[in-house]
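Dear colleague,

Thank you for sharing your sequence with our group. We've completed the structure prediction you requested, and as agreed, I am returning the results in plain text so they can be pasted directly into your records. Please verify that the sequence below matches your submission; if there's any discrepancy, let me know and we will rerun it promptly.
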Amino acid sequence: MSPDAIHFYKPGQDVTAHCSAAVTGQRCVMISGNRQSGPGLSATSEGSNLVVAHATAAGRIFGVAAHDAAINKDVTVLRGGIVPILTSGVIAAFAEVEVGANGTVVTKSAGVAIGFAVNGAANGAVAEIALYQ
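Please find the predicted structure tokens below.
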């Protein structure tokens, strides 16, 4: 008989992560390395957190940094819903977005769609983005 399965994290739940590089709040982050430690491994002072850094342009994301965090510090990652993300260009309401430079968002061209704008936003403004799950 196989063991029961449970969620590690549920969709839309915020997650605490450890920064492998400094991150800025309201920017997209990606997984940047293995978990510091994990189930079945010895506990460490780092708390077994996932490891993140700013997302690569046009790539996938893990979520959005809720606040600024320095390298080797923890950050809250927003994982679902409508979240604030800094723009690197004008974005129209309902336009799909992808990651731009340094974890910002731009109107989707050839990258991975991470969500869509629920309201228009100017270049360098904070956009309201409905993240895809």
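Summary note from our side: Strands lie at 15-19, 28-33, 50-54, 63-65, 74-78, 82-86, 96-99, 105-107, 115-117, 126-131.

Kind regards,
the structure core
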